[in-house]
Amino acid sequence: MLLNNNVTEFILLGLTQEPVKRKIVFAFFFLFYLGTLLGNLLIIITIKTSRALESPMYFFLFYLSLSDTCFSTSIAPRMIVDALLKNNTISFSECMIQVFSFHFFGCLEIFVLILMAVDRYVAICKPLHYISLMSRQVCSVLVAIAWVGACVHSLVQIFLTLSLPFCGPNVIDHYFCDLQPLLKLACADTYVINLLLVSNSGAICTVSFVMLMFSYVIILHSLRNHSAEGRKKALSTCISHIIVVILFFGPCIFIYTRPATTFPMDKMIAVFYTIGTPFVNPLIYTLRNSEVKNAMRKLWSKKLISDDQR
């Protein structure tokens, strides 16, 4: 419910106000977003069309790429367009939609990363029970729970945002709508909202990161009992996951565990998990994964053969 809300739109300051730097921002992030779309869509298509990638690990990787694509799309297109415009206004309703979609797909990515860690734990530490524990039905239920959990988290963010009264300034010192910069514009005491934000977003990021790192410590420790070849393959997969986890959770924890204070570098740090991570993930999962690369080659070969037959 809106309380004394006289603001119908917000002004996004973006990363910079200097005309030359804005053009650089446009070019740089346009290329990054294009690379994100191409990389993640390629993984999505490859997993859906390849019979060699039907294991639970790739089932979860499909949803990671999907969440990456949607997560980046909730931020990047508007940011790219705003870099070319002088008046970067966003309506109140559009701002709320961005808050919801950003947190929904961001939280979904966190839960999918946890599911991928669970999959690796079962595969490496409980190999005899892997087929029964990680059946397609079980994986589908786990992903459904992840979607519901992400939706609940996003609804909490929207509820907290709509509980704030906006009656004065409407300039957001950021390149997208989020609860933190909106808190600075509220004409009310935001101490309780700050605590709720830390206990929600901050706790999800921190607890998930600790759980993931702890699970990978257990996994890596258990690898000592495997053969050299099996250890090498499992180690390669786990290292890929660990890199993704650190790149995504590091900046998130820095931002969402201290919402009462903001620093000038916050916007640049946010770039790492809103734009950088969705771009890097496909590179990590393709360059370090021979099965995905082989499936992509077969997909490309089939396309070339079909084109020649025409």
Automatic annotation (TrEMBL):
GO terms for molecular function: G protein-coupled receptor activity; olfactory receptor activity. The keyword Ubl conjugation does not apply. GO terms for cellular component: plasma membrane. It is found in: Cell membrane; Membrane. It is a multi-pass membrane protein. SUPFAM superfamilies: Family A G protein-coupled receptor-like (SSF81321). Its main location: membrane. Belongs to the G-protein coupled receptor 1 family. The gene is LOC100667884. This is Olfactory receptor. PROSITE patterns: G_PROTEIN_RECEP_F1_1, G_PROTEIN_RECEP_F1_2. The chain crosses the membrane at residues 24-45, 57-76, 96-118, 138-160, 201-223, 235-256, 268-287. Residues 39-285 form the G-protein coupled receptors family 1 profile domain. It comes from Loxodonta africana (African elephant). It holds the Pfam family 7tm_4.
